[in-house]
Design goal:
single chain, 354 residues, alpha+beta, D-amino Acid Aminotransferase, Chain A, domain 1, D-amino Acid Aminotransferase, Chain A, domain 2, ten-stranded mixed beta sheet, 8 helices, 20 strands, binds pyridoxal-5'-phosphate, binds 2-OXO-4-methylpentanoic acid, Branched-chain-amino-acid aminotransferase, pyridoxal phosphate, amino-acid biosynthesis, BCAT-like_N
Length: 354
C-alpha cells in the first residue's frame, strides 16, 4: 500500500525564486518558498494533498471564509543544523492544537498523516529554502479555511488546508515595548481565545494600532472581566521574573496553550529555575517594577522565540526593565534554540528529524 506521502502529486515550478533571496537579511514572513501544499475537503473527506508552485488561489465570492471567518492556522519552524540535517520542534503538538482549533471553529479535523506527511514532503522539496544563518529558520504556516459557498450563517461544507513556507528572521527588531491593555479584550470566557483562529488576531489589530501610535509593539492582554490579570500578548505568551521566580499565567479558555511556553516551563525545571503558574495581577507587576523586584519580562512563541521586553506601559506611564547580565531569558533562549538547531542534547525528545 502506498503511503499518503507517496500519493502526493508534485507539480514543480519552472522558475525558482531562490536566487533572488538574501538569506543574510531576512525579515519575518514576507517572502515565500517556491511551492505550497494544498488539500481540499469535500463531501466529508480530505482529498489527496497536492504540492504546486506557490501562488494565488481562486475562491467563490460567497466562500464562507469571507463572510463568517472560519479560519485557523499554526506556526512552526524548520531548522537546519551544521550538517544540513533538518529538524522540526514538537510538530505533533502543533497538529494536536490545530485540531483543537478546528473543533472550536466547527471545522473538520485533519488526520495526522495529512498534516505530518504533507509537511515532511513539502519541506523535503524546499530544503534549500531553510536558512542556515543564526537566528533564522524556515517559518511554516499550516492553515485551513472555509471554501464552501453560501451566505447562510452556518459552517461550510468545503475547506482548504494549505501549508506555505517563509524563510524568516527575527519577529521583532530592536527593543520590545508593550502596553498593558485595560480597555479592549482579546478574548472572553467561553470564547475562542485558546484557538489559533484568524479572527482572534483581526480583533487585536485595532487596539494594537492605537498602542503602536504611542510607540508600543504589542499589547499585553488582561482578563476581560476587570482587566486585573496579565494574560498574554498578541503573538506570544508572557513570563515575568519576580525576584528569582519565573511566573506565567495558567492557560485557559482565553489564552493560547503555547508550545514555547510549556517548553520553557519544562526546561526551567531541569535548570533549577523556580517557576510558578498562577494568575499575575497587573498591580503586583507595577509594584514590583517600582520596588525593583521585577527583574525580567519576556514573550515566548514560535515566531518571537524568547523576546525580552525592555519597557511596559500602563496607565500613561512607562516602566523600564533592567538589562541583566545573565538573564533567565538569555539562558532559556540558548537552551531552547540549541535543542531546535541540534546543537545540544535533547533530553525531552522534542526534536523531530526529517
Ligand atoms: N499566544 C499567541 C496569541 C500566539 O499567536 C502565539 C504564537 O503562536 C503564542 C502565544 C505562542 O505559541 P507557540 O509557542 O506555540 O508558538
Ligand atoms: C507564531 O509564533 O507562530 C505565531 O503564530 C504568531 C504569529 C501571529 C506571527
Amino acid at each position: 500500500m502506498e503511503t499518503l506521502a507517496q500519493q502526493i502529486n508534485i507539480e514543480k515550478t519552472k522558475h525558482s525564486k531562490i536566487d533572488q533571496v538574501d538569506f543574510d537579511d531576512l525579515s519575518f514572513g514576507s517572502i515565500f518558498s517556491d511551492h505550497m501544499l494544498v488539500c481540499d475537503y469535500k463531501n466529508g473527506n480530505w482529498e489527496t494533498p497536492k504540492i504546486m508552485p506557490y501562488g494565488p488561489i481562486s475562491l467563490d465570492p460567497s466562500a464562507k471564509i469571507f463572510h463568517y471567518g472560519q479560519s485557523i492556522f499554526e506556526g512552526m519552524k524548520a531548522y537546519k543544523d551544521a550538517d544540513e540535517q533538518v529538524w522540526l520542534f514538537r510538530p505533533h503538538d502543533n497538529h494536536r492544537r490545530f485540531n483543537i482549533s478546528a473543533e472550536r471553529m466547527a471545522m473538520p479535523e485533519i488526520p495526522q498523516a495529512y498534516f505530518m506527511e504533507g509537511l515532511e514532503t513539502l519541506i523535503g522539496l524546499e530544503k534549500a529554502w531553510i536558512p542556515s544563518t543564526d537566528g533564522s529558520a524556515l517559518y511554516i504556516r499550516p492553515f485551513m479555511f472555509a471554501s464552501g459557498k453560501g451566505f447562510h450563517a452556518s459552517p461550510a461544507d468545503a475547506y482548504k488546508f494549505l501549508i506555505c513556507l517563509a524563510p524568516s528572521g527575527a519577529y521583532f527588531s530592536g527593543k520590545v515595548k508593550v502596553l498593558i491593555e485595560e480597555k479592549y479584550s482579546r478574548s472572553a470566557d467561553g470564547g475562542t481565545g485558546f484557538a489559533k483562529a484568524g479572527g482572534n488576531y483581526a480583533g487585536q489589530f485595532y487596539p494594537t494600532q492605537l498602542a503602536a501610535k504611542k510607540g508600543y509593539h504589542q499589547v499585553i492582554w488582561t482578563d476581560d472581566h476587570k482587566h486585573e490579570f496579565i494574560e498574554e500578548a498578541g503573538a506570544m505568551n508572557i513570563f515575568v521574573r519576580l525576584g528569582d521566580t519565573l511566573v506565567t499565567a495558567p492557560t485557559s479558555d482565553r489564552i493560547l496553550d503555547g508550545i514555547t511556553r510549556k517548553s520553557i516551563l519544562q526546561i526551567s525545571e531541569r535548570e533549577n529555575i523556580k517557576t510558578e503558574v498562577r494568575k499575575i495581577t497587573v498591580g503586583e507587576v507595577v509594584e514590583a517594577a517600582q520596588d525593583g523586584s521585577l527583574k525580567e519580562m519576556f514573550g515566548a512563541g514560535t515566531a518571537a522565540v524568547i523576546s525580552p521586553i525592555a519597557t511596559f506601559g500602563y496607565r500613561g506611564k512607562d516602566y523600564d526593565l533592567p538589562e541583566l547580565e545573565n538573564s533567565y531569558a538569555s539562558r532559556l533562549k540558548k537552551r531552547i534554540v540549541d535543542i531546535q538547531y541540534n546543537r545540544a542534547e535533547d533530553p525531552f525528545g522534542w526534536r523531530y528529524g526529517i
